[in-house]
Design brief:
Order of helices and strands: HHHHHHHH
Structural class: mainly alpha
Helix content: 55-70%
Radius of gyration: 18 Å
Distance between the termini: 18 Å
Largest sheet: none
Shape: elongated
Length: 187
């Protein structure tokens, strides 16, 4: 895969979206988007830039990683996708979901992964009997402490791990031109 800027990734996605029939039922449009973009160069690049954006935020302004990924994705595509509000929402939601899926997929490789896709950060590492569950740790610390203390340090470590994981993906993966060939964007 190649490293793209946010604008390059966005432009490639918008160019591809323009080829999708606007008259398709919503479920079919969602399927096409997922099939077309899951694990794509564009999604991996947007995921990478989103992680760097989160890392650059003041920790007191961060929410949880998934929420901040969603906000980043929506800010990239704000006002950029078709004027039709249904299609606009479907496209933005599916693209945000795919970026979140990239996070979940990379978090699973973190050595301290909790085992929970929805709550990948454990309460402590190594876990001890009586520790809060990953779900409990998230909600116990959700209001003010997601990025503070031991739990916050683990969350920061996961963020750093995902950045490095994504960098390795961008460096070592084979660029898949099949999708672009299929829609006519590769000569």
């Amino acid at each position: 895969m190649q490293l793209l800027t946010v604008d390059q990734a966005k432009t490639r996605i918008l160019d591809s979206l323009s080829l999708i029939d606007e008259g398709l039922p919503i479920y079919r449009m969602s399927d096409i988007l997922v099939d077309s973009f899951r694990g794509s160069t564009e999604i991996v690049n947007l995921f990478y830039h989103a992680l760097l954006h989160i890392k650059g935020m003041n920790p007191s302004k961060r929410k949880n990683i998934c929420f901040d990924l969603f906000k980043f994705s929506n800010s990239v595509f704000k006002g950029q996708i078709r004027a039709n509000s249904v299609n606009n929402k479907v496209c933005k939601d599916v693209l945000s979901m795919l970026i979140k899926d990239a996070f979940i997929d990379s978090a699973k490789y973190w050595p301290k992964y909790s085992g929970s896709e929805g709550y990948p950060v454990p309460y402590a590492f190594p876990p001890k009997p009586g520790d809060l569950s990953p779900y409990g740790a998230f909600w116990e610390t959700h209001s003010d402490f997601l990025w503070k203390g031991n739990y916050g340090a683990l969350r920061q470590e996961l963020l750093e791990f995902c950045i490095k994981f994504c960098e390795e993906q961008l460096k070592n993966s084979i660029y898949n031109e099949a999708y672009y060939d299929k829609i006519g964007l590769v000569n």
